Amino acid sequence: MLSRTNFQKELNGKKTDLFTLRNKSGMEVAITNFGGRIVSILVPANDNTTVDVVAGLDSIHHYENETYYLGALIGRYGNRIAKGRFSLNGETYSLAINNGENALHGGSAGFHNQVWDAEQINENTLKLHYLSKDGEEGFPGNLAVTVIYTVNDDDSLEIDYKASTDKTTVLNLTNHTYFNLNGDGSGAILDHLVTINADRFTPSDETQIPIGIETVEGTPLDFRRETKIGERIDAENKQLEIARGYDHNYVLNKKGNELSKAASVTGPKSGITMEVYTTEPGMQFYTGNFLDGKMPGKSGKPVDFRTSLCLETQHFPDSPNHPEFPTTTLNPGEIYKSTTIYKFLS
Ligand code: BGC
């Protein structure tokens, strides 16, 4: 059981708290407005119990000290920007470097470490708002971001993102929840069965920056048919070596920016399946290869190597430096919109 008081703190003059959303069938999602982080998702299982399918921590204090981006809203730019540099309208911008020589997930003071304004609209819905000031972590423009979390009655969690800017900027918003469909603290996710609706992915260089787009055909990255994660994760393959496992952006099979099915994952011990739907063109499949057991998880077990996985819906990494990728530029007067749904079946 999470203790709400462990989440009630004041940071930079703003109050943090823990909010609980519920639907009719007993699905429950706990979210803190510190980083807009999903702390737990209780999915109703067959035998009248619930299974918590999310890796998380039990207090704000622990979230302040973690480096995995557990459950967090990521911005302004989810994933990497090469050497933290990009140009817009002839001007070059330099971001904080926080991942080798690159910028990752919006910098150390990214959205995951900000206190969002929160309003619980009803039992099902939480509205979060954050104003990212012009120049924050090196990004141009005052960016107003609204994220709405809704727990729907079909046992899905919907995340709706909206943003606008007063100066041309780049953004790539996502959520970095780590899932274990067998239950938080139940061990490695290597037995999970995964399907990804993508014929192609963006292979990366040694620093995990994309070097193009390639087919998954004939590689251990092919998840077009349901496959156990552990079957090929340690196969001899340059891409798997670089990332110490799966940590790759998939180019989703879709026509435009319609909401479409990106992936599904099943935990064989619980029998729970999660389906992922998104309007985004890409999805990072990350198998927790950099989790190192240094943080105590809310389950009582450390958050350890490959004990949970992320399905981060997104635009492609380093898009500002790849004009051939779908654009991540947002101009004044435009509204950025994105939706992702995690739906649970048991
Ligand atoms: C990245 C990983 C990174 C992780 C941070 C993922 O989105 O792809 O390379 O280590 O985030 O926890």
UniProtKB/TrEMBL annotation:
**Localization:** Cytoplasm
Record lineage: Bacteria, Pseudomonadati, Bacteroidota, Sphingobacteriia, Sphingobacteriales
Cited PANTHER family: ALDOSE-1-EPIMERASE, GALACTOSE MUTAROTASE
One of the record's GO cellular component terms: cytoplasm
Instruction: Give the GO biological process terms.
Output: galactose catabolic process via UDP-galactose, Leloir pathway; glucose metabolic process
Origin, by domain of life?
Bacteria
Catalytically driven reaction(s): alpha-D-glucose = beta-D-glucose
Give the molecular function GO annotations. Answer: aldose 1-epimerase activity; carbohydrate binding
Known EC number: 5.1.3.3
Pathways involved: Carbohydrate metabolism; hexose metabolism
Tell me the residue numbers annotated for binding beta-D-galactose: 79-80, 176-178, 247
Which PROSITE patterns does the record match to this protein? ALDOSE_1_EPIMERASE
Q: Which cofactor does it need?
A: Ca(2+)
What is the species of this protein? Hufsiella arboris
> Which InterPro entries does this chain map to?
Ald1_epimerase_CS (IPR018052), Aldose_1-epimerase (IPR015443), Aldose_1/G6P_1-epimerase (IPR008183), Gal_mutarotase_sf_dom (IPR011013), Galactose_mutarotase-like (IPR047215), GH-type_carb-bd (IPR014718)
Instruction: Please tell me whether the keyword Calcium is annotated for this protein.
Output: yes
Protein name per its UniProtKB record? Aldose 1-epimerase
**Residues forming the catalytic site:** 176 (proton donor), 312 (proton acceptor)
Q: Which family does it belong to?
A: Belongs to the aldose epimerase family.
